[in-house]
Amino acid sequence: MKIDILTLFPEMFEGVFSQSIIKRAIDQNKVEICLHNFREYSTDPHHKVDDTPYGGGCGMVLTCQPIFDCVESIKTEDSKVILLTPDGIPYKQQMAYDLSLEKHLIFICGHYEGFDERIRSICDLEISIGDYVLTGGELASMVITDSIVRLLPGVIEEESHQNDSFNDHLLDYPTYTKPRVFLGMEVPEVLTSGDHKKIEEYRREQRIERTRDRRPDLLEK
Ligand code: ADE
Q1: Ligand 1 pocket check: which of 8, 132, 134, 147 to mutate, most ligand atoms within 8 Å of Cβ?
Q2: What are the 10-residue block averages of pLDDT along the chain, 221 residues in total?
Q3: Is 127 found in the same domain as 53?
Q4: If you take atom 4 of ligand 1, which residue's CA is the nearest one?
Q5: Rounded-to-integer distance, Cα 100 and Cα 148, Å
Q6: pLDDT of residue 113
Q7: Are 101 and 201 in the same domain?
Q8: N-to-C CA span, the chain
Q9: Does the C-beta of 125 come closer than 6 Å to ligand 1?
Q10: Which range marks the domain in which residue 206 is found?
Q11: pLDDT at residue number 204
Q12: Do 134 and 175 fall within a single domain?
């Protein structure tokens, strides 16, 4: 998979993509991630990328030209162009699965007060990562990239995402590791019993109980 990210702040991504599982996925060529500073595409003599809003109002608005030209230069017939915006479709695990099957994703990160409405015309999808407003789409694109890359074949063991929270609309089951007793808190006996059938049943029950407690809205689905 190839992921292109259009941003005015490529340095923001350095830490996130140079560590841990994402770094390994890049090193093993499971994903190619390219950052594009669309300021470089601005035809303005001062490389301006924003301007004041028509009709008045505060803040600056990203202009169409640099983003249109940047997308045009990297887009192919396999590309899915995604705009990160708080008024997009709420991001869910199912979307991560769907997007992990695509060949080429292009993320457009807005910044400042907003972007020219006409930028939406070149996007196939608009995504919000939650009902709150970030200073830009950068963090949102990192969150989405992370959630997709871990699902790519061979990036992590298939089994580790089979029981992920939100699969089957259920949260994950509780896990424990050594020691068996820590500050008087014991690991549930069933997990040390060696009875795999019982362990499986216990985990399933825990997933349902935990979802009922914490996210009853998921069970309704
Ligand atoms: N840009 C600003 N806020 C955002 C959000 N909640 N999701 C996606 N992109 C954003």
Answers
A1: 134
A2: 98 96 97 98 98 95 98 98 97 97 97 90 98 96 98 91 84 96 98 98 97 95 77
A3: yes
A4: 86
A5: 5
A6: 78
A7: no
A8: 31
A9: no
A10: 163-219
A11: 96
A12: no
Residues 170 and 149 in one domain: no
Give me the CATH number covering residue 210.
Answer: 1.10.1270.20
* Ligand 1 close to Cβ of residue 114 (< 6 A): no
Same structural domain for residues 41 and 149?
yes
Tell me which residue has its CA closest to atom 6 in ligand 1: 86
Which numbered atom of ligand 1 lies nearest the CA of 131? 6
Number of structural domains the chain divides into:
2
| 90 shares a domain with 12 | yes
Q: Is the CB of 85 under 6 A from ligand 1?
A: yes
CA angle 74, 76, 81 (to 5 degrees): 75
Q: Which atom of ligand 1 is nearest to the CA of 133?
A: 3
Q: Please state, in angstroms and rounded to a whole number, the distance separating the CA atoms of residues 70 and 49.
A: 12
d(CA 77, CA 106): 12
Nearest to 131 by CA among 118, 120, 142, 140: 140
Catalytic residues: 86, 113, 150, 164
The domain boundary, picked from 128, 158, 188, lies at 158
Of 158, 175, 191, the domain-final residue: 158
Q: In terms of domains, do 135 and 96 share one?
A: yes
- pTM (2 d.p.): 0.95
Angle subtended by helix axes 20-27 and 138-149, to nearest 10: 70
Pocket test for ligand 1, best of 6, 8, 84, 142 (most atoms within 8 A of CB): 84
The answer to whether 33 and 24 are in contact (CB under 8 A) is no
